[in-house]
From TrEMBL:
Residues reported in the UniProt entry to bind Mn(2+): E62, H95
Species: Vallitalea guaymasensis
Coiled-coil ranges per UniProt: none
UniProt keywords, alphabetically: Manganese, Metal-binding
Name of this chain's protein: Manganese catalase family protein
Domain of life: Bacteria
Length: 116
């Protein structure tokens, strides 16, 4: 979508959109940042090695992604952007459901009586 949005954009259009700093370093290329321009880092990805804790982290990440896609959809009226965003949002819902099922399986296994 980034390439689709920037395709054919002139330098003046990029400046007018507040993207001059991005252009200076990355031209029309993709460079993952948050909405404030802070570059992506894995520092916020948590893993404790505990399956219950890690699955809760995964569930939260899917909900955050779903909300972000909804926010992006609210910022545009372009159907060529809204349709892929709807697909991506639905994918996050499915991921959330699958992580929830995995959490149920893990908790059932942890609660199962063990015989040795």
């Amino acid at each position: 979508m980034i390439y689709q949005l920037l395709k054919g954009a002139t330098i003046q259009e990029l400046k007018d959109a507040g993207l001059a700093p991005h252009y200076a370093q990355h031209d029309h290329g993709l460079f993952p940042t948050d909405a404030s321009g802070v570059p992506f880092t894995v520092a916020g990805i948590g893993s404790l090695g505990d399956p219950v804790t890690d699955l809760h982290e995964d569930l939260a990440a899917e909900q955050k992604a779903r909300a972000t896609y909804e926010h992006l959809m609210n910022l545009t009226d372009d159907p060529d952007l809204i349709e892929p965003l709807k697909f991506l949002r639905q994918r996050e819902v499915i991921h959330f459901q699958r992580f929830g099922e995995a959490l149920d399986d893990v908790q059932n296994e942890l609660n199962r009586k063990k015989y040795y």
